[in-house]
Every structure is written in C-alpha cells, then in structure tokens.
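Case 335 in the screening queue. Each case pairs one protein sequence with one candidate compound; here the compound is AHG. For every case the pipeline is the same: read the inputs, emit a complex structure as tokens, and attach any notable structural observations.

Predict complex for case 335.
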Amino acid sequence: MPYKRITLTHFLLQEQRRLGGSGAFTSLMNDILTACKMVSHEVNRGALVGNHGVAGTVNVQDEEQKPLDVLANDIFLHMNALGGNYAAMASEELEDVHAVKGSADGKYLLLFDPLDGSSNIDVNISVGSIFSILRLPEGADPNSANAFLQPGVQQICAGYALYGSSTMLVLTTGNGVNGFTLDRDVGMFFLTHPNMTIPADTKEFAINASRSRFWEAPVKRYVDECLAGKEGPRGKDFNMRWVASMVAEVHRILVRGGIFMYPADAENIKKGGKLRLMYEANPMSFLVEQAGGAATTGRKRLMEVEPTNLHQRVPVILGSKNEVERLAAYHREGS
Ligand code: AHG
Ligand code: MN
Ligand code: MN
Ligand code: MN
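Case 335 output:
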C-alpha cells in the first residue's frame, strides 16, 4: 500500500496554496501546535513532576487554579508570542488582555482556554486546550478588550487539543473540520479524521444532572423525554454521558454524535451561564457548525451573540442538529 500519511503542517500548507495565503496563518498555527504538544507532555508527566494538586491562586473567574492551568497558560503565552503574528492574546486565566511585545505587524488576536476540564487533571481523565483566532479590526487598539469583542461568526479559525488516551488536534478554518493525532515518537500531528461530520440524530445526551432542580422548563421537558426512553414520546432509549471536560464532550459528539448542554438555569443565569463565550462556547460552536451540527443558547444562535465582556458567560446547547433544534423549539414554546 502506498504511504499516504500527511502531517498537520503539510495540511496547512496545502490549504495555504489553495487559498493563496501569505504563510502567516501557517506560521501562527505551528506555534499553537507546538504549545499543544508541550501541554500534552506536561499533562502526561502528571504527578511525576508535581503537575497535580492546587496552585494556591484564584483566577478572574473565582476558580481555584491548578498547577497545569497556570503552566499551560504560560506555555500558550510564550510559544504564541514568538512568531510575531498576534497583536494580543486573551485567556481564561488572565483578567486583562495580554499585549504581545514587539509585534507591531501582528494582524491576529488569539483567545484560549489553556487547560479545559481542570477538575479532571488529578484523576487522570481527558482534559484539553481550546483556541479561537480573530482578525485585529482595522484601527483597533489590540491592548483593549474591545478589539476582541467580536461575535463568533467572525472567527477565522478555531480548534482544540484533546489530551486523552491519545493526543489529538481538531481544527476548522471555516472549510469543514479535520482531526489530527499526535505521533509522540515522530513529534508530529498526522491527519487521522478527515472531514469530521456530526450525525443529525442521536441517542446520547450530556448534561450535569446534579443541577436538575435549577433547570428551566424546556430543558426539564427535553431531558424527561429522553429519560422516558422507548415508552416515552421519543420512542427510543437514550444514553447519558458527562465527562466534565467540554473538550472531551465535543470530541465525542464530533466522532459519533450527541447533544451537550450547559444551559441557563435558575442559579447560573445570575452570571449569564457557566461556560465562557469567547474561548469555550464560540470556538466549539464554530467546530460543531462546520461539522454539520448546531449550537445555540436555547434562544439564539451562539455565534451571533454580541459579546460585551472578555470573560462573559453564556448558556450552551450544541451537537446533533435535530436534537439541538428540538430543544431550541421547546425554548420558543416556553415549555
Ligand atoms: P475549565 O476547566 O476550563 O474551567 O472548564 C470547565 C468547564 C467545562 O470543561 C465543563 O464542561 C464544565 O466546566 C464542567 O462543569 P461541572 O463541574 O459543573 O460539571
Ligand atoms: Mn477554569
Ligand atoms: Mn474550560
Ligand atoms: Mn480552563
């Protein structure tokens, strides 16, 4: 059989040739890949090098930081500054915009969640990193959060790295979704999941059911109908999953379908929801839509939400199109 494997770098070069790009994009993606490989290495070494436990600091979200939240953040900031492509960056772990020194020509903005699923680090369950790339608007001050406050539809690239039983990088530039697996011996990501697509129907849902007492009526109805199984109005049995790492949930959905919900509830709506719009919900929504799925707050297409704050939270419902649309319809009906 002829040898056919292609690396992520080759894939990006092919895209660059196809689109007639300058190479800046390929270069900035390479910095992200390097950062993800380094974080993967640290996740893998785990307790051997003191990467478990707590860091003893609290981030702008009022969350207790883990050593890997801090280290992954530092790795992302450092590796992505070197190429000089970004005018500025923003992270879950930083209150303010991070200006990139000496990048007067930087045309892009990078947003990231350096370590997603922090609560799973110490128990050796999959975690990930999420990133979103925006263009620096003409004339905008990159050191101001305002430059970043663009709706998800303006993303030019989004993706995640999943540090699971293997490390994967899944990516979209608005032309479908492709998945790459890290070959640790070679030190390269290879294309293993071309053109990922989400089936429109599913029998699998993911929600943190411990919050059911706070749920709104449409969510309660949707989950009750799933739980009723064959005997209920859906006429089929559903299975439930909850990893508590959004990256792992979205990856499962990209591979075999499903619906993921972190909806508004009576408690979290005081802060706007649980998940963060700019570096969790938007990049994941871009991937899911590009794979043929849908992503909504329940009341609005997620990528059309106009951001007002770098760290704003938002309700998230995403995955298999028919299920997401069903739940959105329940929201419209108000029950
Ligand atoms: P992070 O670790 O980046 O703060 O994100 C955690 C998020 C997300 O990954 C996950 O879906 C959700 O929080 C888990 O929430 P629960 O702890 O309520 O299950
Ligand atoms: Mn966090
Ligand atoms: Mn996260
Ligand atoms: Mn995080």
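Case 335 observations:
- The chain has a mean pLDDT of 95.
- Residues 63, 92, 113, 116-119, 208, 244-246, 262 surround AHG (ligand 1) (CB under 6 Å).
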